[in-house]
Amino acid sequence: MFKPDLHCHSHFSDGKHPPEALLTLAEESGISHLAITDHDFITDTSKLSSKTNVELICGVEISCAWHNREVHIVGLFIDPGSETLNKLLEQQRFKRKQRFITMDEKLQSHGIEGLHSYLESLPCETRTRSHVAEFLVTQKHCRNWDKAFKNFLSRRGKAYVPIEWASLYDVVKLIGEAEGIAIVAHPGRYGLTRTKIKQLVSEFKEAGGEAIEGTYANVDPSMRKFLCELAIKENLYISAGSDFHTADRHWTELGKFPRLDSTANKNAIWNHSRWHSQ
Ligand code: AMP
Ligand code: MN
Ligand code: MN
Ligand code: MN
After folding, report:
1. 97, part of any domain
2. Whose CA is nearest to atom 14 of ligand 1?
3. Is residue 39 lining ligand 1, measured as CB closer than 6 Å?
4. Is 155 within the bounds of a domain?
């Protein structure tokens, strides 16, 4: 059966499972095509020895700046060896490191010690605020993740530190140079009005972007309808993924998101020529 999941995270960023375990989970969930899209790091799927029938797609999820906001762009079918893209991703990870130094100082000023050594002990390539949330919860400074984000890590949180991410324009351009397809990730999760989402999608298209996620875990049905119609109107492809991180956390399961209806399916990313020329 054809069942793609084109957005998920491994333990190289803030997912729980190694890529091999994601593949096993994917097979158990009947997934036919899986894209691992770690934050600001390319998990090189060509090096994975898969004992499953799941087809792997090389992906990435890049944080970027758009009009003073942060949006996420997924790249699929990227060349993992792309020098320019890897250079950009290294810069992004360096910015994250700098951010955590300041975050650690802020936490220390609130009597919370140990973030730096906790982050250093992690085996991953990209550290994110979800690792900090994990630290705050396991060290009993916060009762749960939601509290950790609300009190410390969100824009208004006590330990929040902004980052100057690469621009949307540069990210889309470099994904293209790495032979990939650029996709706006979960457009309904940025707190934007529909007018602003239209503006985001239109500027993304001008930059050379080709697709938006029309369905993802917990997307509101009216938002899904709006996104699919917008993609069709703008002549963009529609992507679909769970944004799975871990089986422990509330909202996701691998492969769990509403299916595209037959109209949206005509614009689905699996009709893109790149899908068939791997
Ligand atoms: P960062 O890339 O460092 O900004 O961290 C963002 C990551 O934290 C996201 O990819 C999510 O996995 C997670 N995240 C962001 N906001 C929340 C939230 N409000 N509650 C739970 N997890 C969140
Ligand atoms: Mn994440
Ligand atoms: Mn994201
Ligand atoms: Mn994601």
Report:
1. no
2. 130
3. yes
4. no
Q: Which domain holds residue 220?
A: 4-88+164-276
Count of domains forming the chain:
1
The closest alpha carbon to 234, from 258, 262, 202, belongs to 202
pLDDT in tens, 79-137: 999 999 999 999 999 999 999 999 999 999 999 999 999 999 998 999 999 999 999 99
Q: What is the per-residue pLDDT across 215-245, written as a single tens digit (0 to 9) for each?
A: 999 999 999 999 999 999 999 999 999 999 9
Token pair of 140, please? 């009993």
Q: How far is 233 from 216, CA to CA, in rounded Å? A: 20
**Which ligand lies nearest to the CA atom of residue 130 in the structure?**
1
Q: Which atom of ligand 1 is nearest to the CA of 132?
A: 3
**Which residues have CB under 8 Å from 21's CB, separation 6+?**
none
CATH number at residue 195: 3.20.20.140
**Residue 216, SS3?**
strand
Quote the ligand 3 centre to 211 CA distance (angstroms).
15
Kindly state whether residue 144 falls inside one of the protein's structural domains: no
Q: Whose CA is nearest to atom 2 of ligand 1?
A: 128
